[in-house]
Amino acid sequence: MCLAVPGKVLEVSGDEELMKTGRVSFGGTVREVNLAYVPQVEIGDYVVVHVGFAISILNESEARRVFDDLESLEEPEIPEDAA
Amino acid sequence: MKYLDEYRDPAAAKKFAERIARTVTRPWTIMEVCGGQTHSIARFGLQELLPEPLTLLHGPGCPVCVTPLGLIDKALQLAARPEVIFCSFGDMLRVPGTRGDLMTVKAEGGDVRIVYSPLEALEVARQHSDRQVVFFAIGFETTAPANAMAIYRAKAEGVHNLSFLVSQVIVPPAMQGILSSPGNRVQGFLAAGHVCTVMGIREYEPIARRYRVPIVVTGFEPLDILQGISMCVAQLEEGRAEVENQYARSVLPGGNPAARNIMQQVFEVVTRDWRGIGDIPHSGLGLREAYRELDAERRFEFAPEAEEPESPCKSGLVLQGIIKPTECEAFGSACTPESPLGATMVSSEGACAAYYRYRRAPA
Ligand code: SF4
Q1: Strand, helix or coil at A53?
Q2: Phi, psi dihedrals of residue B268, rounded to the nearest 5°
């Protein structure tokens, strides 16, 4: 039920904030999405969509943090006798 | 970034799992609140990646599962009325009521329509001004803004033939209920990333402090869940109990202000009955007085239902993390997704259905 999927905003229409809608691509499948809750959205943004509504705009630098964290795991361990 | 496949890389998942294994020194029990996370854990076999001393319990976060029987019965009565077009999210159709489900009513001639968004119900109402259209407005905080928008617009646009059967529940009171129950085993939570996308994370701070539990707001992809677990385990090992945000790419501390604003206008906090668990104070949302004319429970009269039949279903215990689905005797025998005895076997986010679907051959 709380399934929400990220998609890329292709088109934004409607001037009035509560009436904003747009076309969003989910890996190629394009759907009409209500954008009333992401009024600052721009074309090219990725939004999280749940039951036809965008509920957030994904933040790219935050999105990379998972991978930064992962890289920190890969740093070669300093051998004990090097200390 | 596509925000999807990158978070499913098995090699990366293994690295996180190895770190978790290196950090864990004692047995810990962590509950993921949201059924979407339960589904991912089962689908990607994440439990199997984790070290032995770590137990994952599955929480109550499946709105389909917790919608009370009484309300399902009301939905069945409404859907059977000849003047009604009953609109619902697809996953409610197989949820058993006292007698049958929405699917049965539909097969018997009821006009039951699956909608993808609550706004479609508004559209159906506009197109059929001679009929009564009812939308089954269920969900957690994630869905509340969408439902609220349909309700708000129905009123603003004077759509007189649309009403809402509301079963909106909210997460924090259910978490507190679990933590204050005498048999509680939960030591840390993965909070639901999409609920927090709407609501923000601040309301979890008093819970973390009061019950001394780490709460990590977590996303839904395998790497999200593993990183969330890793953060939660680190807190447990260090004796910290804080609210942390693993899912910051979607969750802002204050949530989504535009969504919260419409929710506030339409809904107020009420006590709600959770199926299998019972009444939880302040655990749901109901229509504010200004919107009561759109309340299907007021607009229609309902026949009283017979006593709840005896059922072997233990979904209430499953939803509170007290037992695992496989500990229910009916699991996989009397109860399967094809003939479910409980809602947790119906919804793809119900723990029973997730276990059944992704059952692994015993090692
Ligand atoms: S397996 Fe079926 S009967 Fe048992 S708790 Fe789950 S839904 Fe209920």
Answers
A1: strand
A2: -130, 160
Neighbouring residues of B123: CB distance < 8 A, sequence distance ≥ 6:
none
Output DSSP code: residue B240.
-
Contact check, Cβ <8 Å, A36/B149: yes
What is the spatial distance between Cα B351 and Cα B275, in angstroms, rounded to a whole number? 14
Q: Is the pLDDT of residue B195 over 50?
A: yes
pLDDT at position A68 is 82
**What structural domains and CATH numbers belong to chain B?**
25-358 (3.40.50.11740)
Tell whether ligand 1 has an atom less than 6 A from the beta carbon of residue B347: no
CB of A58 within 8 A of CB of A48? yes
In whole angstroms, what is the distance from residue A74 CA to residue B141 CA?
38
Q: Tokens at residue A48, please?
A: 């999280």
Coil, helix or strand at residue B66: helix
Over the stretch A25-38, which tens digit does the pLDDT of each residue have?
998 999 999 999 99
Give alpha helix (H) positions in chain B: 10-23, 35-43, 46-49, 63-66, 69-80, 102-107, 118-127, 144-156, 171-180, 193-199, 205-211, 222-238, 257-266, 296-299, 315-319, 351-357
DSSP B24: -
> What pTM was computed for the model?
0.91
Q: Quote the CA–CA distance of B98 and A38 in Å, as a whole number.
A: 41
Give, for ligand 1, the residue of B58, B315, B357 to mutate: max count of ligand atoms closer than 8 Å to Cβ.
Answer: B315
Q: Go through the domains of chain A in sequence order and give each one's CATH number.
A: 5-74 (2.30.30.140)
C-beta neighbour count of B218 within 10 angstroms: 29
**Letter string b/e over residues B328-338, b meaning 16 or more CB atoms within 10 A of that residue's CB:** bebbbeebebe
Model confidence pLDDT, tens digit, residues B234-244: 999 999 999 99
Closest residue of chain B to A69, computed from CA coordinates? B227
